[in-house]
Amino acid sequence: MLSFQTTRREFLRLGVAGLGLTATAQATPTLHGPGWGQAKSVLIVFAGGGQSQLEMWDPKPDAPEVVRGEFGAIRTPVPGTFLGEHTPRIAALADRYTILRSMSHEDLDHGSATYLALTGHYHRQRSGNPPASSDDRPTFGSLLTRVRPTDRFAHTAVHLNAPLFSPRVPAPGQFAGLLGREYEPLQVGDTSGQQVAMPGLASQPELPPLRVAARQKLLAAIDTYRDRLAADRLLEGKDTLYQQAWRMLSNPACRQAFDLSRESPALKDRYGRNRSGQTCLLARRLVEAEVPLITVMWNHNSRGQDDAPDQTDAYGWDTHNDIFMALRRHLLPRFDLSFSALLEDLEDRGLMDTTLVICMGEFGRAPLVARERSFAGISPGRKHWAAAYSIVLAGAGVRPGAVYGATDRLAAYPRTEPVTPWDIGATIFHSLGIDPHTTFTDSLERPYVLTEGRAVTGLFG
Q1: Within a 10 A sphere around the Cβ of 399, how many other Cβ atoms?
Q2: Residue 97 sits in a domain of what CATH number?
Q3: Is 253 within a domain?
Q4: Rounded distance, CA 272 to CA 181, Å?
Q5: Is the pLDDT of residue 202 over 90?
Q6: pLDDT tens-digit readout, 9-26
Q7: d(Cα 384, Cα 362) in Å, to the nearest integer?
Q8: Are residues 93 and 233 in the same domain?
Q9: Dihedral sign from CA coordinates of 37, 38, 40, 46
Q10: Residue 369: strand, helix, or coil
Q11: Positive or negative, the Cα torsion across 310, 160, 387, 121?
Q12: What's residue 452's pLDDT?
């Protein structure tokens, strides 16, 4: 039976501790190279639960059946590159993106691995499902808000279809953590079935601009009185929320960005009239609005099918059992539709050159099909697997029609070019023109670095 080996710990070791709390960030000399500063926006499509590399991005048709599974592989426009048979639309676009097949790390549970994927740091409780904490490392969007806040939109970072539950509580790694509420990404939930993704931003006929301005003055007067009171952390947190809400309400471009009624019915159909599809459509609108970092939680639960097996919207990629049924009926048809629509739409609108798109999850699935008695389901599936898995990158100078890295014949371990989540974090900042080794100091003037990873410049060219 295949098992995860731990002999590569020295390669996968985590770097220095901590990001600190500072009022200013100091950058080390600029690191130029392929892909540097080419992205205005980064769009992360996060597939929580763990997509199976064998059924999607890295099929192994010559492996034993107990490894390769039930699905076949299909050709793509890129010679020698095959994808899983149930992603035909995405396969047809293979000449527009790079498949990175050699992702690897050592965390084997959803919560802590999501934290690793979205912060670039191992959680102190590795391979577990800890709750989010105020002393967590900040998510990428919070870090970006800290080092380079935007003046083009009300928020530097937005999380859509969020938060991601893994599976009962919001996974850590999605929040500002030790940076505090001021740096929290905007969290937007289910947008399907709504004309305005955030209904509170819709214009209210009974509340014209003059009345809105009057209410703002009243709030300012109340705040003046409140400032005479003893310091109150809860009130300070509300202050931050009030300021963020006012920035959104007072910005017409911000309100328009969340207005899905401006999209044609045909395009909404192309993305899919469901949570994941409409979230991807909204993400494209936020790219147009020049939001620097958008994270789409493609599924809002890593394993919601246990509670709602008949609701496709509830399904996550954690397919311990019934993997082939879940992928064939629920997950892959919607993903194939929405992700391909996103790539085509960004390309058609001329946004791909300045948008780095990353589709990733927290890990992959085991190269062994087997039924697990401790999980619901009647047919076999695949366990968690972090030793080797695949992600996809496109836009902002990423080489189209390429494959980066390779796995062994079972898709179990990287054979060439291993890449870690902290390297992906460095690649994100590099693409935005931010030195991944930007330094901070905490309240005691202790220096820390933004990430210990190295930008994967080989992806660009």
Answers
A1: 17
A2: 3.40.720.10
A3: yes
A4: 33
A5: no
A6: 433 433 333 333 343 444
A7: 10
A8: no
A9: negative
A10: coil
A11: negative
A12: 93
**What is the distance, to the nearest Å, from the Cα of residue 438 to the centroid of all Cα atoms in its chain?**
22
Could you give the number of structural domains in the chain?
2
Taking residues 296-321, report their average pLDDT.
96
* More reliable by pLDDT, 200 or 276: 276
Determine, yes or no, domain membership for 24.
no
Q: How far apart are CA 331 and CA 322, in angstroms?
A: 12
Rounded CA gap, 368 and 17, in Å?
Answer: 35
Q: In whole angstroms, give the CA distance from residue 50 to residue 374.
A: 18
DSSP letter, residue 352:
G
Q: What is the mean pLDDT of residues 327-334?
A: 98
Where do we find the tokens 């958008």? 294
Which residues lie below 8 Å from residue 269, measured CB to CB, with a gap of 6+? Answer: none
**Residue 180 confidence class, pLDDT cut points 50, 70, 90:** confident
Give the tens place of pLDDT for each residue, 234-257. 444 555 554 565 566 567 778 899
Question: Given the structure tokens 């890449």, which residue do they identify?
Answer: 419
Are 281 and 427 contained in the same domain?
A: yes
Based on the domain organization, do 245 and 318 belong to the same domain? no
DSSP letter string, 398-433? BPTTEEE-EE-TTSSSEEE--B-HHHHHHHHHHHTT
Q: Are residues 269 and 211 in the same domain?
A: no
Residues 156 and 269 in one domain: yes
Contact by Cβ (8 Å): 114, 429:
no
Task: Check residue 77 and give its pLDDT.
Answer: 98
The H or E element that residue 306 is part of is none
Helix, strand, coil % in the chain, rounded to nearest 5? 35, 15, 50
Domain of residue 189 covers 41-196+264-459
The sign one gets for the Cα dihedral 438, 11, 101, 163 is: negative
Averaged pLDDT for residues 383-402: 98
Q: Are 191 and 212 in a shared domain?
A: no
The reply to whether 215 and 240 lie within a common domain is yes
